Amino acid sequence: MTSLWLADRPAQALPPNPLDESNRTADVVVVGAGITGLITAVLLARAGRDVMVLEAYRPGAGATGNTTAKISLLQGSKMSKIVGRHGKGVAQRYVEGNLEGQEWLIQHCEAHGISVQREDAFTYAQSARGVPSARAELKACQAAGLPAEWVDDADVPFPFHGAVRLAHQAQFDPMPLLDSLIVELDERGGRLVQGVRVQRASGADDGLTLHVRTAEGHEFDVSTKQCVLATGIPILDRGGFFARVKPSRSYCMAYQVPGDITRGMYLSTDSPTRSVRYAPTPDGDRLIVGGAGHPVGRKKSPSKSLQELDEWAKEHYPGAVRTHYWSAQDYTPADQLPYVGPILPGHESIFVATGFDKWGMTNGTAAALALASRILGGRMDWAQAFASWSPHELSGIPTAVYYNLEVGFDLAKGWVTPITRIANRTPRSGGVVSGPPWALEARCVVDGVEHRVSPVCTHLGGIVNWNDSDQAWECPLHGSRFAPDGTLLEGPATRDLSAAD
């Protein structure tokens, strides 16, 4: 399962111990080498700061390398949610931040010869029941200052009942962008260290110590004055951001399609969600279809929804042949606005960037601009719409309470349900959690190999469930994900699942 963007990239072995004792300090440490982390690092390096980027896997291994990579200010039905909850003033500042992020990205790509396709974006209704949501989005976009318009028809082969159109948006392959940022970071004296996972932090504004572990099991400390957590969801629990966002998993597939491929970027308002764009490749354009999303760890069989998505693509694009399949994780903030800023109010040593809600290309770049400016002593006027701590969060309290009621239910359910599976402890394929609460065990069979691990998530003790599409263990509490053998993949957890007793 590899995305179109990550496929065919040369594999590079990670060094067993990538940092010697003389190379373990920096002015700023950025954790995560995705779009937010690398742009933040480059901006700080341009200002003369000594910057180190720590990446647990490889650049783009998280959301950036598995996105649909739409650089769009029309973001599904996002604007109507923001206007409805916060009013047009906050929505206008959110748009200003996204616009600055979009312009920075496009200008950087143009300056470095990176291909960007300028296309119209559409938030469309698949049926009559989706029209009111699309109309509401049009009204909200116009209130926020976007020059959106309504169209009744489009040159598409799938059901279309009208849409909001925002002209001259953009899309691209994000990996050449990351490559250019890595080159510039190196040229400016910054360091990218791969295969290093940050597990905890200690200290305060007078200095931080980050405890890290390599894939080979080496452990050591890195010293820094300030730290930016650009990890999708913050890996440190202080600030409680794991309880303020809802993790979701969504899927994409790329196809070779005979004849013409739909131009423009499309996202439906009504369910099931359908996302459509094209992507140029050396072998011709590919169709990218996305959807089948679900809360992490809470879908009984994601593969069924994925099959429906595949059937939808082949129905509306006859002769389509799937070439790639991948998935990504995103985080929906309780108050619909990203959280960008200090991990705790008044503390300027650890910063976070999360809650991009599937729009990380513009939001992630805006977050990098806001964080770099703050660390360097400046500020962005629009950044208050992205604040990690702000009075506007009060509007998200009911949603956050609901999120955490769901978490409590899933926690209890996870510890009780496996008792009913004691007689089904060895699956022929896939995975199952079984046993009494004092002896829970997660077993899976992948490619004929059986794995046995503890199902207790190393974050806050939730019981993982099996994702039969991604072939991974997922925690339904806060979205931590693990490989079949228990190796940590992503999420707020910082340690692997332990071995089964």
Automatic annotation (TrEMBL):
SUPFAM superfamilies: FAD/NAD(P)-binding domain, ISP domain. It comes from the Bacteria. Keywords: 2Fe-2S, Disulfide bond, Iron, Iron-sulfur, Metal-binding. Residues 1-20 are annotated as: Disordered. GO terms for cellular component: cytoplasm; membrane. InterPro entries: FAD-dep_OxRdtase, FAD/NAD-bd_sf, Rieske_2Fe-2S, Rieske_2Fe-2S_sf, Rieske_Fe-S_prot_C. Residues 447-501 form the Rieske domain. One of its GO terms (molecular function) is monooxygenase activity. This is FAD-dependent oxidoreductase. It comes from Mycolicibacterium litorale.
